[in-house]
What we know:
By secondary structure, the protein is mainly alpha-helical. The chain has helices at 20-30, 36-41, 58-62, 68-78, 85-102, 105-124, 126-136, 145-155, 160-173, 178-186, 194-205, 218-224, 258-261, 278-281, 306-319, 332-342, 356-367, 378-383, 391-400, 403-408, and strands at 266-270, 287-293, 325-327, 346-350, 372-375.
Amino acid sequence: MNDATPASPSLRLDHFPPSRDAGLARLAAFVPHAGSHYAKHRNTDFGPTGDVGVSGLSPYLRYRVVTEAEVIGAVLDSHTLKQAEKFVQEVVWRTYFKGWLEMRPQVWADYLVQRDRDAALVLDDTALNKRYRAAIEGRTGIEGFDDWAQDLAEVGYLHNHARMWFASIWIFTLKLPWALGADFFLNHLLDGDPASNTLSWRWVAGLQTQGKTYLARQDNIERFTQGRFSPRGLATEAVAVDGPANPPPEALPERLDVRAALSAPSVFIVHPDDLSIHNEIKDHPMVKAVVWVQGADGATPWPQSAHARSFVNAVIDDEAGLNDVVMPTADSSKLNALADLVGASQWVSMAPPVGPMADAMDALSNAGSKPLIQARRGYDATLWPLATKGFFPFKKQVLEGPSLIEAMG
């Protein structure tokens, strides 16, 4: 339900300049602080205009303007893993969520069904609709929560700790459906991601780690906002939301390495789930043309928020070469005509992870005009299959074994 009025496209692009150079500059500036400074300050929300203890890299990582391997590699060039473990662990969380959902795509499909069911329920229930409208418009009277709702609409960004508090208050204090809260985030977040967003909301609700919930507390919010907010009247218990058991992991679809996929003359398709791959293949002799796709087809545009679309489109404007083609969506007839023009016999792209972009690429593949080869990065191929259980077994395998170094190789 995209109910709130979008903010101005200028949004927070002044704070997150939309280019790969800006992402790499932010990474370089953060690296000296990735050790003890990050560990000490990462949970403190200094506010939308205050100094931050986090990296500010999430939009660049979300669209892979800068990759996880680049970020971890830069940090470990300056710190030992022990010194920077808290930060590396946060990047690994992102990887875990991606792999977990990739092996359980039904969870994403179930979320979409739940979201639509809850949206219909809100329309039919006057009291629920009133609470919902107050929440998304920042009119609940709950200190902090209303500010965060307004920050989402205006700038498309919240500190990760504030996202947890917001989700907990939404579910347990306001008694609102978790799926509509997750949808509200995707409608506004600059760095909204199907895996991280959906599974984080499920975790707060007690669905991801079944029975384990997250309860926002007044003292915790007061402490980690440095006294800016001290909300009263919050729920004092968090009873897990009912839901089915998590499905067992499925085998990941087989994917080639991108260079192996480029075995014949190709049109290479770059999409919002991986905007830096162009730098690795642009001079490959089998790449006859590069097409930048700005989003996915569907009733709800993807990237879903106006903030995200502005960011993605600006990155594409910055990165696309003079001879590259930019398309709003992956139009099979136009791609086919381009392939025929340049003598390409196939389309190649990086396989998007579970979400709307993956659906769009599958639809392109099924169009049948040309074969679509979807490749996978070595980082993902190495780490995603390890996300078979909870995060802590995954973290142990990644950080205490050879997997991370192999993935970055």
